[in-house]
């Protein structure tokens, strides 16, 4: 198997016990050299609410959200946003290399096996972005791993979040509405909303808000990067 990022041969170094165990072996699409450029968030004194790394307790972003909404978020992420993640998303989203959707398959799959939810949904691309790119990047990132339900609709925004500064991001108005399928689920079911990157939390807060307004109470969010 070749690394989807750099093309180097991947040596998975399976132990004999792993080969003969009945446990599912999760495919790996990233080589060790590329992996070394990642900054995992595991065991790093993350903010307990949003996984911001190296926070002593609840971070200032989360305190602002609490003041504004009187509610707390429940977010997890796998990797700190760094140069490698930045370049990855540039290739994947801006240049539209859809094959890169699987680069983190092993990491996301492992997380999914340890964290259980009743309903898994995602932050969808707007129609104009979908048409421009030809695929929905968040959907493709997770579609092979979770049984994804499309429950949100994204209204076309003036400009993409990535082109906004921090203040503009925080002040973006609600950009989601619910699809009728949201009524197919019980209000006590555990909901997981997936996104690719958590920056200020603005996007996921709005997605979260839609579910709250429909009476759901048990809502968590997840992103590849924070
Ligand atoms: Zn590589
Ligand atoms: Zn936080």
TrEMBL record:
UniProt-listed SUPFAM superfamilies: PRTase-like
Gene3D superfamilies: 3.40.50.2020
Family listed: Belongs to the ComF/GntX family.
Protein name (Swiss-Prot/TrEMBL): COMF operon protein 3
